[in-house]
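2024-03-11 09:14:02 DEBUG pipeline.ingest accepted 1 chain
2024-03-11 09:14:02 DEBUG pipeline.ingest length=362
2024-03-11 09:14:03 DEBUG pipeline.predict start
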Amino acid sequence: MQLRGALLAASLLALPIVASAQPVTGLYVSGGAGVNLMQNENIQSFNVRGATFFPSGSLGSRVGPAFVGAVGWGFGNGLRVELEMDYRANQFDSVNNGAAAHVGGWEQKYGPMVNVAYDFNGLGPIVPYIGVGVGYQVALEQNVHAYNAAGSTSLYSRSDGSFAYQAIVGVAYPIVAAPGLALTAEYRFMGLAGNRSYGAYATNPAGGVVATGSVKLNDDYNHAFLVGFRYNFGQAPPPAPAPVAAPAPAVMPARSYLVFFDWDKATLTDRARQIIREAADNSTHVKVTQIQVNGYTDTSGTPQYNMGLSIRRAGAVKAELIRDGVPAGEIFTRGFGETHLLVPTGPGVREPQNRRVEIILH
C-alpha cells in the first residue's frame, strides 16, 4: 500500500512540469511486452468446511509475461491521453500460511485502462515520461489448487473483475531515421481494488468432494517491466516542400545572398544553384577580399546533429561557388546549427526559412 501511494503521489506532483522539445502531437499507437511480478495475494476469507489447508495467509506466484497496447492522442505540449488494453499472467507456486502444501494454477488479468501521461521533452535524446491510469481488470483464476496427503482444495476456474488503477514511469528514445517512431522502456504498478470471490471445493485423498464453499482474494498488486515502441502519426515526414525563393532584395542586407534547403537535406536545388551563380558573378564586379559562407538549420533534430548538418550545407555552397569560378582561397565556411534563427521558433519546429546558407561578400 505504501509503494502504491508513493508512486501515485510522485506522478501527480510531477505533471505540471513544462516540457520543451519534440512533443507527441496528434494520433499515436504504442505497444510493449515484458514481465509481471505479482505480490503475494491475500486470502481475505475462506469458507470451505472440511478443507485442512488454504484457510488463511496468502498465495505466492512466479514471474509471468505482461503485454500492453494503446492508442492515444498527444496535445503537443507534453500531455497525452490514451486507451490501453493489457494482459498479465502469473503461476501460483506457494501458500504462505505455515501449511505444507503443493500449490498450482494461474491467475490471468486483462482489461481496459484510460491513462494520462506527460513527456518531459528538451532533456536530450532520451524523453522521460510519467502517467496515471484507471480502468477495469478481469482476474481469471484457472485451475488454482493446493494439495497434500490429507487431500486438496481447489478454486473453480472462473473470473471476477474489479476497479483498477496504475502508475507509469518510462523513457522514450526517438529514432531520428524514422520520424515519429520511438523505442520505450517503462515500469508500471497496477493494483486491483476490493475483494474478488471464487467458488471452491475440498476433496479427500481418494478424490471425492467433501465440501464446497467460496474463497475471497484481495491485495492484487502487480509490478510490470516492459520494452516496446510508440509511433506518432503527427510526426510522419510531410511531402517535400517546394523550394523557397529568396526574400526580395529590398529586405536583404547589401552584398549578401540566402540559399535555402529542404528539410534534413544538404543538397542544392536548381533555385539554390541560380542564387550561388549570381553571387559568384557579382563577386567579380565589386571589390571582394573574402566570401563568408555561413550554414544554419531549423530547430528540429538534436543540437549535435544540426551542427553537422549546417556545416555540410555550407560545404555544398562552397563547392558550387568554386565550380562557378570563385577561388577557393577566398571562401571561408562556418556552421552555426540551430542558432541565429531567421524566423524565431520554439524547439522542434521545421521552419523552411531557417534551413539556409548565407553568402556574404566582404
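2024-03-11 09:14:41 DEBUG pipeline.report The two ends are 71 Å apart (CA to CA).
2024-03-11 09:14:41 DEBUG pipeline.predict end
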